[in-house]
Amino acid sequence: MNQTLHPRPQLQRAEWHSLNGQWKFAFDDAGRRELPRDVEVWPLRIEVPFAPECARSGIGDTGFHPVCWYEREFEAPPGEGRLLLHFGAVDYACTVWVNEHLVAEHEGGHTPFRADITRALRAEGPQRVTVRVQDDPHDLSKPRGKQDWMLEPHSIWYPRTTGIWQTVWLERVPDTYIESLRWTPHLEDWQITMEAHISGDLGQAMRLGVKLSHGGQILADDNYGVIYGEVARRIVLSDPGIDDYRNELLWSPESPKLIHAEITLWDGDRLVDKVQSYTALRAVYTQRDRFMLNGRPYYLRLVLDQGYWDDTLMTPPSDEALRQDIELIKAMGFNGVRKHQKIEDPRFLYLADSMGLLVWEEMPSAYRFTSTAVDRLMREWREVIDRDYSHPCIVTWVPFNESWGVPDLPKTPAHRDAVQAFYHLTKTLDPFRPVIGNDGWESTATDLIGIHDYDKDPENFRERYGPRIRMDELFDRRRPGGRILTLDGYPHKGQPIMLTEFGGIAYARPEDPEAQKIWGYTCTDDAAEFAARYTHYLETVRDIGLFSGFCYTQFTDTFQEANGLLFSDRTPKIPIDIIRRATFGEE
């Protein structure tokens, strides 16, 4: 894997050591092995961080495998202090040993975890890390997103992802070190809140230095005392006042200005730790019927992005592949993505921050409503928000999609309570971003109302959502997909309304031998017709004043779901300039 970007872009130390590459690998379908010494034979080799289901891993086995094992040797990087072992994401539950010492257990397939392995290291010679992964392919009560529970992918479901699918890496840290950072911009006060947590033995004279800069200009250079291992301060910037000057520092898709942060930890006059980070000044919220960015109404032009690649599944093949996706999305006239049923690699979020792309982050769904499912979703959703809170590109949280996992919202109070609980939990953990409780239909607690409507004739959108429609008719009588838009007792309260899924036109290359097996909401075998339909959809939707934005389905073809604007290899189906003119309107 060609990776040069740091796997944790918002808290970087100068040195980190990737453990990606060749690992020993074994399936354990019967689940009989419990400890590293139980694995006597390693019949396979796998290229980490690619899942064994994908071709790039070197295995390409898409069968049902509920348990698998990984192992490799490594050299501990030289230096003093502690050695941390990081996993970006392992699907679904795993146990980690170093030199047969248990160092970590983690459940949740989309969030990172780490282990302090200092005490497990041998005094000399190579070290050995072993990982046992459990991922029941039939378990519908775990957050699994678009991963199919059937042997062959069907409809809108894709191949499974088992095991390690994001970067594994080592980090040498001091005995006392900066463990985490959290940034919150307060545009109305021209301030930024920084929260830092320090791990290890704390001296009496410990202080944290914070230097913020942009374009070579120092914005703040302060020192704060470390109290009980924490520092939480509002940093007041010099407010230039008039908008023309303020805009020079504000973050937006059109002008993604990042503020560089250098954080230093001091014990008296001794430098203990140093990390690099970044933040941005921007505000997102809803005001009456509009989405607001930096105090102004902002029209959202989003595209649904599944985040899959043919040969690597959910793992990006390289940093450059992530960069190319964002360049293509912006070139087609979109200013954001709705990451659908996937928590994306932090490197994507860093590139979205630096290149200027809005992101709606959506929790991968479970498909049963049980106490176990709720517990798993809530625990992992909290970890997601904690991981990604500080990224300026993220402007909306979406805990549920299309009532997946809460299928009986209209008639089951517990399902409605779950959506409301997740909405309020999300607002508690992050009161500064809009939250959509359940995107698509059957809204209860929500800051925006998202509508999914795959009508084959876009002219019907004018009848449903055009200027002649009354709000009571819209919410009481219109049922896209046979679903009511708002549940009884939760009327529309003036929130912005968006068409957050529509289109889905399937088109495959005529010479494609699988062309007859493709899936889409509508289909065509002619590129010119594809272009005309897309243009008609977008012209119609952009013309409807009720909407504060839209999200078109979808960015690329994804396996049998061939309704992308691009083929799965990222080749445009029609010229990019035609897509851009339709998406954006005449410029």
UniProtKB/TrEMBL annotation:
Chain ranges of the Glycoside hydrolase family 2 catalytic domain: 289-577
Keyword Nucleotide-binding annotated: no
Disulfide bond in keyword set: no
Glycosyl hydrolases family 2 sugar binding domain boundaries: 65-170
Pfam families: Glyco_hydro_2, Glyco_hydro_2_C, Glyco_hydro_2_N
Domain Glycoside hydrolase family 2 immunoglobulin-like beta-sandwich: start-end pairs: 176-282
Keywords: Hydrolase
Family per similarity comment: Belongs to the glycosyl hydrolase 2 family.
Protein name: Glycoside hydrolase family 2 TIM barrel-domain containing protein
